[in-house]
Design brief:
Number of helices: 4
Mean pLDDT: 90
Strand order of the largest sheet: 2-1-3-4
Strand content: 15-25%
């Protein structure tokens, strides 16, 4: 069996977007990818993150807010930032193979109705495309 690709999702607080991405990648393709998430600042996971994932049947097991510092010295095949602020702060993350910058609105601060569900859907679509493309290599 080939080694799983290690993917680290990073956003500012590790409260919503990166947690959603971690859970969605695990749900979509845990056979080929090992998903992690972190924030440039550690806070706590927004309760709506758990509720949104549970609503569509995605496991929230093990999700907790982590600082990027927890992963110091670890190697990742992909480091994917999910907001512009994290992208600016993580441009030269040591141990990163390929760095990708995706930008999604923060559902925690959004005033849009169903912001969490909307962000979840956008991230899920991007992850499905990522899995499709990376599994062809």
């Amino acid at each position: 069996m080939t080694r799983k690709a290690r993917v680290l999702f990073v956003c500012t607080a590790n409260a919503a977007r990166s947690q959603l991405a971690q859970a969605l990648l695990r749900h979509t393709d845990s056979e080929h990818f090992e998903a992690f998430s972190a924030g440039t600042t550690r806070t706590q996971v927004d309760q709506r993150t758990f509720e949104t994932l549970s609503h569509i049947g995605v496991s929230t097991e093990g999700l907790r807010s982590k600082s990027i510092d927890e992963f110091g010295g670890e190697r990742f095949d992909y480091v994917i930032t999910l907001c512009d602020k994290a992208a600016a702060q993580c441009l030269s993350l040591p141990g990163a193979g390929e760095s990708l910058a995706w930008s999604f609105e923060d559902p925690v601060t959004s005033t849009k109705p169903d912001a969490f569900r909307h962000t979840l859907h956008e991230i899920h679509e991007r992850i499905k495309m990522f899995v499709l493309v990376k599994n062809k290599h």
